[in-house]
Amino acid sequence: MAENRRWWALVVIALAQLMVVLDMTIVNIALPSAQIDLGMSDGNRQWVITAYTLAFGGLLLLGGRIADLAGRKNTFMIGLIGFAAASALGGAAANQGMLFGARALQGVFAALLAPSALSLLTTTFTDPKDRSKAFGVFGAIVGAGAAVGLLAGGFLTQYLDWRWCLYVNVPIALVAFAGAWVLLSDSSRHPEAHLDIPGALLGSLGMLTLVYGFSEAESRSWGDGLVLTLLAAGVVLLGAFGFWQTRAKVPLLPMSVVKDRQRVGAFLTILFVTIGMFGVFLFLTYYMQRVLGYSPVKTGVAYLPITVGMITGSTQIAARFLNRVPPRALMVPGLLVAAGALALIAQVGVEPAYATYILPGMLMLGLGMGTAMMTSVSLATGGVAPRDSGAASATFNTAQQVGGSIGTALLNTIAATVTTRYATAHAGPGVNKQLLEAKAAVHGFNVATWWAMASILLAALIAGVLVNTDRVPTVGAVAKETPQQPVDTPI
């Protein structure tokens, strides 16, 4: 691929990835409006987010294997068209069930699209210098895409309708499809590839059961028999999935991908980071709109500091120092800064506190996450031969989406449970009901944010202990060193 063609291909890949990441949060600001319009309960509203992230995370490894059969470019383009169609269906939703189903369908096609996009990026940019630049852009998109989605969601919800937060994907997908048709040429297939159907069923069902158990805890309590059964069944199914992957002839998750200490560190780091992050975006949105009375546009603009911080951390810190310092020297400080940001945000009350807590917290959060996320993406896919890039890409995306799915369900459950207990404990004659509801909601958000901070600190600990390489290895170097190894992984 000619030099200029490679960078234009990066634009196409980045556009598609922006759409996927953006769609995980663009509906957050639209959610209060959609909840009223479609009559969703507080307990069910999380499924607008969870249905997407669960289908996405549960099917990513299968999506990587399908890309192996059909080729990266073909799968990338199929994912774009399917994502556009599912978005149009969600925008036209007549009830909450239709919206939940459309969001799940979006997740299915995103599971085809995301591993193909990251794999194409990994195998296109193998030179260390170009790779740092390309992954700096990609890392900024992964990190800032969530905040960009919140900003876009605010404008679309206020000036058009919440449904346009889904409709907007259609033109984006079509533009990316046209660019992929012209610019992308990778259509490699592996002739010995097979679909691991048992692995797909065990992994997807395990994640669905686990997240459903977290969500049911909000209405039933953590000690409820059904909740405990669902959580236990989810763990057993995922354990069975792991066992099957060691015995399957062509596994969805080849052991060669997860035996590397550095990649395992990156995967676990991103898992716990996203567990903490997704719930925080949801809580901040409701805090600013329901408690502070911000309009959707004002809420979106209020998220801009995160975007600025993400871009700065990815392109000006991580990209510049990635090839100069050990990865954990970027990941651990970045995550500690992000954890400090959540500790600051957790101090908010019912009175306006944007300038004192939220603004500095968002700047710190964006800077820390941008630095850590870009480094994690590069580490997770570095040192992987081109034939293994699909598996590594799918596993990284799986960790991200599974973390987001669990985090949204778990933290929403914690917040709702704490809110209910606070309201019950402080209710009484003469108490201002509206003020009590606001205080209870904020207290629930604060407690859940402390839990989110704990998840980020755990991610920092994992990165500090497991990631011990001096530099991120490149794809090209590994490919040259191991040309004769048997090819048994996706892509």
SSE order and pairing:
Layout: H1 3-22, H2 26-38, H3 47-70, H4 72-91, H5 96-124, H6 128-159, H7 164-167, H8 169-183, H9 197-220, H10 225-245, H11 255-258, H12 261-291, H13 296-302, H14 304-321, H15 328-345, H16 354-381, H17 389-426, H18 433-466, H19 475-481
Helix pairs in contact: 1-5, 1-6, 1-8, 2-6, 3-4, 3-5, 3-9, 3-17, 4-5, 4-8, 5-17, 6-13, 6-14, 6-16, 9-10, 9-17, 12-16, 12-17, 12-18, 14-16, 15-16, 15-18, 17-18
- Give the number of helices: 19
Number of strands: 0
Q: Sketch the major β-sheet.
A: none
- What low-confidence regions span 5 or more consecutive residues with pLDDT below 50? 475-491
Element pattern in H and E: HHHHHHHHHHHHHHHHHHH
Span between termini: 19 Å
As a percent range, the share of helical residues equals: over 70%
What is the percentage of strand-forming residues?
under 5%
Shape: globular
**Structural class, please?**
mainly alpha
Instruction: Give average pLDDT, whole number.
Output: 79
Rg: 21 Å
Short description:
This protein is mostly helical and 491 residues long. 79% of the residues lie in helices and 0% in strands. The longest helix has 38 residues, at 389-426.
Give your account of this protein's structure.
- There is one protein chain.
- The chain has 491 residues and is mainly α.
- The protein has 19 helices and no strands.
- The radius of gyration is 21 Å and the shape is globular.
- The two termini are 19 Å apart.
Q: Features of this protein?
A:
79% helix, disordered C terminus, mainly alpha, 491 residues, globular, single chain
